[in-house]
Design goal:
five-stranded parallel sheet; 11 helices; six-stranded mixed sheet; Cytidine Deaminase, domain 2; about 290 residues; Rossmann fold
């Protein structure tokens, strides 16, 4: 779908809720390139980058009260959520505001028992009730969006395309159940599905199956990552980076296919360099909305 | 569906193709209880039990030629396949017979690229073309079939039932894609899906997620194992045993639900004893054929 993205309009300062990994840093740098001065909410036990170059506060993941204090103090009008969260909040983590308490039952239920997408949707609705606009990271950093077609030198061959088709079908089924975004197919057959463990752990599992001789040496295979059906695009686009390429290589895969326009390629230059160095393809798929719906 | 199973009728000697684990031994013992004198085809690199008490040959997994020689020599009229196979045959493993060669293209394609169910269906068809009847292990050992309702002292509570519902929905989706049979749900949410790695490896993954603090301590969760839609019942019923109960306990789960009448409970006495000792439920579900079809 490769949507044309224009810079978002909002009043006040931009806030970035930063989880794990380098993605929030890329978004913060892109925000500076757009002449924003972002304020960073670095999530405790999650954010793992150096934020000393930015205005930043460390914040418990459920500490809505401290969060709203800073939002008001800094005049924050829009928020971007970026980076992974490995641990979901428990009831003891949540220090609600009064407004949150009023709408607590359904929001809390989603936070405590929903899939990722339900949680992120609940968080987004809660912020918007507080008058804070929620933007997608791709609105601040559109260059991070995956494009259609191959990124590096290699293209999927016929056998790769059969694997892409099988893994895509599985990833669509997974997404419909709000479970995960990724699947690995080898020799035309899906052999691994991503749950809570995440893409890198799934790739490590595939590497283990290969080391144990449970995948034939000649069949390489592909990783497919898709957006979930009806996914909250502002919160949780599937992402790949150079580590994904390296881990896919270790798993003996032939390449990676992601959804064009609805996924993120982090550190694109290094992704391309690693893909070319290791001989993997990385390609963007047009997955028709109709396919998600069937 | 708890079908009433009557002892199967066939001419000649019974053969058991034995893969990994104790399941083939249980089937062989049940066959003796029915006054059969089974001949054991112990698959090389797979069969791991002591077969010295039986007439047995070690056989490469693709060695149809040696297999058919024995079938003729021993006058074998029916075969049961029992036990896991961790490695799928590659093209180099297959030593075909002339009859197999005549029907090779589609059978080989299934063997080399299909899901488990396709492979087993192809193997079954190949044997039947050679005049060998293929029986389900449950026809020889009907006491191994899971029944409806709880096996031990515990029953699923309301929270367990929500997990069972979520994991059942996912297992049905998995089965429809011929991927796997198992899913784990915790707190109403599916967190792990079984691929090629198998149930025990999936449970180890859940134990790891819990050790890493990525599952809240209070949510226990359930394992659900179902038959795939249209599964070849003679070849590959989902099975649990005492190890499954112990591994589910290590993963912090509340219990296990399997499909009544279409799954195997190996070492039932020990399964019940372990479930009671560890405080887990083990229960048989009626999964309507209609649910598989939707």
């Amino acid at each position: 779908m490769n949507a044309v993205v224009s810079a978002p309009v909002f009043k006040g300062r931009l806030g970035i809720v930063a989880g794990r990994g380098s993605f929030p840093v890329l978004v913060a740098q892109a925000a500076r390139d757009l002449a924003h001065n972002p304020y960073i909410f670095a999530l405790k036990d999650e954010a793992d980058q150096d934020w000393s170059d930015f205005d930043a506060a460390n914040l418990g993941i459920g500490d809505l009260s401290a969060f709203m204090q800073i939002v008001r103090r800094e005049g924050i009008g829009a928020i971007v959520m970026a980076g992974g969260i490995s641990r979901r909040p428990g009831i003891g983590d949540i220090r609600p505001t009064w407004t949150a308490l009023k709408s607590a039952p359904q929001a809390l239920r989603a936070l405590l028992s929903g899939g990722d997408d339900k949680i992120l949707r609940a968080a987004t609705e809660m912020l918007e009730r507080h008058g804070v606009q929620v933007l997608g990271a791709h609105e601040i950093a559109p260059d991070l969006l995956g494009q259609c077609g191959p990124l590096g030198n290699r293209r999927p061959d016929q056998s790769d395309r059969a694997d892409i088709a099988a893994a895509t079908q599985a990833a669509i089924a997974l997404g419909r159940l709000d479970i995960g975004q990724g699947a690995v197919a080898v020799g035309g057959r899906v052999i691994a599905l991503e749950g809570l463990e995440g893409t890198d752990a799934m790739l490590a599992r595939v590497a283990g199956l290969r080391a144990d001789g449970r995948l034939r040496a000649k069949s390489r295979g592909v990783l497919v990552k898709l957006c979930k059906q009806g996914q909250e695009l502002r919160a949780d686009l599937p992402a790949i980076g150079p580590d994904t390429v390296r881990n896919a290589h270790t798993a003996g895969l032939s390449g990676i296919a992601i959804e064009a326009g609805r996924s993120l390629v982090l550190q694109r230059g290094e992704v391309i360099a690693e893909a070319n160095r290791l001989g993997l393809f990385v390609t963007g798929l047009e997955v028709a909305a109709a396919e998600h719906a069937t």
